Amino acid sequence: MTTVAPRPTGDPRLVPRPRTRRGLAPGRTTARGLLLGPALLVLIWVLGSATGLIDPATLSPPWTVVSTFGDLIADGRLQSNLLSSVQRAALGLLLGIVAGLALALLAGLSRAGEAVVDGPVQIKRAVPTLALIPLMIVWFGIGEEMKVVVIALSVFVPIYINTHAALRGVDARWVELAESVELSRTSFVRRVAVPGALPGFFTGLRLAVTIAWTALVVVEQVNATSGIGYLMTQARNYGQTEIIVAGLVVYAVLGLAGDTTVRAIERRALSWRRTLGS
């Protein structure tokens, strides 16, 4: 005899509905969501300065920083120094990405390449790039070459680590399928390995963009004659905290803009993937 489950009675709004997998998944972060955290920080800064909890000698009020931005833009100092910083960061980031990708492909697609490349990269990973600055000064001097090389050395490690891990983590079923249809080595790399490694590459790229700005802050305070870091160093010598804070705000905006741009490119490039965030 088949038992039929009784239908629920009463108010249908009180009947529990089954949870779906989609309902438990986090939604995609929007641009408004990304700006919520920085907006809260600015609000705390405004309230702390207005109530006197934050000493102006320690951290200039936001309205003073805004006025400072106006003065720096009016005399052209912000534009010229910002251009120098962006050029250094972009060149170092580009070189680091190329080096990290090349080494990751060499190590991820060849056991011999991994034996040769992975060890030195792990050694570099263990040695802070900033600790290499004295040696970089000896090798390249104190000009632009040293600054770009330091940024590139900081950038290539996260690119390599994440791309290499993604290459080594390509689903074995895809590898078996490629072997069964007798894909050539070139076709396997182009159709299976590289698409499978893209998520890891973009993770490394997000880290690399942030690290590039972090390295730039340091190298621009080593005998620089231009750049946001140089502007902040000069302000430190004269006790102009408002310019220092303005420089920090510029770095923060550049870092956030870079990360947001990479995330947008990642969503477009990986639109074929069905993830929990989609």
Automatic annotation (TrEMBL):
Check the record and name the Gene3D superfamilies matching this protein: MetI-like
| Entries under InterPro entries matching the protein | MetI-like, MetI-like_sf
Give the UniProt keywords, A-Z: Cell membrane, Membrane, Transmembrane, Transmembrane helix, Transport
Q: Which domain of life is it from?
A: Bacteria
Location of the ABC transmembrane type-1 domain: 82-262
UniProt-listed Pfam families: BPD_transp_1 (PF00528)
Q: What is its main location?
A: membrane
Claim: Membrane is one of the keywords in the record: yes
Q: Where is this region: Disordered?
A: 1-26
Sequence intervals crossing the membrane: 34-54, 89-110, 122-142, 148-167, 192-218, 238-258
Q: How does it sit in the membrane?
A: Multi-pass membrane protein
* UniProt xrefs under PANTHER family: ALIPHATIC SULFONATES TRANSPORT PERMEASE PROTEIN SSUC-RELATED, ALKANE SULFONATE ABC TRANSPORTER-RELATED, MEMBRANE SUBUNIT
Which family does the record assign? Belongs to the binding-protein-dependent transport system permease family.
The protein, known as: ABC transporter permease
- Which species expresses this protein natively? Actinomycetospora aeridis
